[in-house]
Amino acid sequence: TRVIVLIPIAIAINIVLGYTVQTILKLPIYLDSIGTILVGVLAGPIAGALTGILSNLIWQYAPGIGGGTIGPFAITAGVIGLLAGIWGQLAVYKSRPASGRQLILAAIAAAVIVIVVVIPIINNPAYTDPNNGYPSWVYTAAAVIAVVVAVVVVGFIYIRRDLAGLWVAVAGVVTGIIAAFVSAPISAIAFGGVTGGGTDLLVAALRQGGSDVLHASLGQGLFSDPIDKTITSFVVFMILSGLSGRLLARFPLGERLVRDRAA
To answer: How many whole angstroms separate alpha carbon 42 and alpha carbon 48?
Structure first.
């Protein structure tokens, strides 16, 4: 019953945030999977996948904000929810208090992971060569996003003294990479790489750099998705950290989040 009640709330969160970020602000990220990952971590792969799929389908046909290109990406959303359920079963989001050298190494490792994800876009001349006629701010924006996310991840791990931050970052990056490979063919075949969001700027940059539609869509996804899913994963982790152990334990995978706290 609790999962059934949570799913509509999660769908609403996905649609409201996703529509705001992608359609109104047109940022090169999505933030439309917070509810999906939250349900997956708490209730398992099936519930997570269902939340992701329904979010996109409802968003596609919702009065006022419906239409556009979000519907076909329900496949990607379902995969994200499925992966979130797997991370929940593996207790990735479980608090792991630590201190000393172990904590410092975890913070450095998490920062390195974030930076490595952004290296492809920084090294791609499509973004950095002014001869391509593309705005120079794209390179700056990529670097700023990488630095901000890395600082936040390191600060989160070190201030909270919790190794879970490293594993949450890893889960976010892996989820993002898989999502990029799933969504790239959809974007390229169904929409020619143009989906109407802020990520179209990145696709255009890669196209101007000589990539075909599929590789441009994949290149955009390999930048946007890992960063987006890392941010999303940390938002979910912070939400879960703020909930009581008694409340978490009432969900199917809740015990995997509170075991160490109870101890």
So the answer is: 9
For residues 1 and 6, give the distance between their C-alpha atoms in angstroms, rounded to a whole number. 9
Residue labelled with tokens 């999505």: 30
Long-range CB pairs of 239-244 (<8 Å, 24+ gap) are 239/38, 240/38, 240/41, 240/42, 240/93, 241/95, 241/160
Q: Which of 156, 178, 160 is nearest to 235 (CA)?
A: 156
Inter-residue contact 80 to 37 (CB < 8 Å): yes
DSSP 72: G
Is the pLDDT at 171 greater than 90? The verdict is yes
Query: Tell me: the pLDDT tens digits for 33-53?
Result: 999 999 999 999 999 999 999
d(CA 255, CA 94): 9
Which stretches within the chain are classed as H helix? 2-19, 34-43, 45-61, 74-89, 100-123, 125-128, 137-160, 164-191, 200-208, 213-241, 245-248, 255-262
| Of the candidates 57, 62, 58, 17, the residue with the CA atom closest to the CA atom of residue 35 | 17
Question: What are the beta bridge partners of residue 97?
Answer: 162
Share of the chain above pLDDT 90, in %: 40
The total number of residues shown for the chain amounts to 263
Closest alpha carbon to 256 in 43, 46, 2:
43
pLDDT in tens, 40-98: 999 999 999 999 999 999 999 887 777 778 999 999 999 999 999 999 999 999 988 87
